[in-house]
């Protein structure tokens, strides 16, 4: 379900999908994907609202997607053997993400 959340970074209300919820002290925090900005953000529980009916029908400007058959890689350095090899990784590292974004621009 899509909600409306207030993004502190963008200083506006945005449509969002809630990814996860966790408790931080007495408050709840929500990890959200902003469907019109393709960004993830953390939002306090008091900054979430139910989306009005007409706005729920407007198509998203961004979609979560994955590259087909593309797996993350990382550079593994062995200081003992003085070698470096590229191997599989569980997640994309920040340098690879930044390089990919520059390619898209």
What does this structure look like?
This protein is mainly beta and 105 residues long. It has two domains: 2-57; 73-103, no CATH class. The chain is built from two helices and seven strands; from the N terminus they run E-E-E-E-E-H-E-E-H. It has helices at 53-56, 94-104; strands spanning 2-7, 12-24, 27-34, 39-44, 48-50, 73-78, 83-88. Strands 4-3-2-1-5 form a five-stranded antiparallel sheet, with no helix packed on it. Strands 6-7 form a two-stranded antiparallel sheet. A hairpin with a 2-residue loop joins strand 2 (12-24) and strand 3 (27-34). The longest helix has 11 residues, at 94-104. The protein is elongated. It starts with a strand and ends with a helix. The model has no long low-confidence stretch (mean pLDDT 85).
Key words describing this protein structure:
2 domains; mainly beta; 7 strands; 5-stranded antiparallel sheet; EC 3.6.4.13; 105 residues; two-stranded antiparallel ribbon; 2 helices; 14% helix
Outline the fold blueprint.
Blueprint: E1 2-7, E2 12-24, E3 27-34, E4 39-44, E5 48-50, H1 53-56, E6 73-78, E7 83-88, H2 94-104
């Amino acid at each position: 379900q899509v909600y409306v959340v207030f993004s502190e970074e963008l200083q506006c209300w945005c449509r969002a999908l809630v990814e996860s919820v966790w408790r931080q002290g007495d408050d709840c925090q929500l990890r959200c994907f902003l469907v019109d900005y393709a960004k993830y953000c953390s939002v306090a529980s008091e900054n979430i609202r139910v989306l009005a009916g007409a706005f729920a029908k407007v198509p998203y400007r961004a979609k979560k997607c994955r590259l087909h058959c593309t797996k993350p890689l990382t550079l593994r350095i062995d200081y003992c053997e003085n070698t470096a090899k590229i191997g599989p990784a569980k997640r994309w590292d920040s340098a690879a993400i930044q390089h990919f974004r520059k390619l898209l621009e």
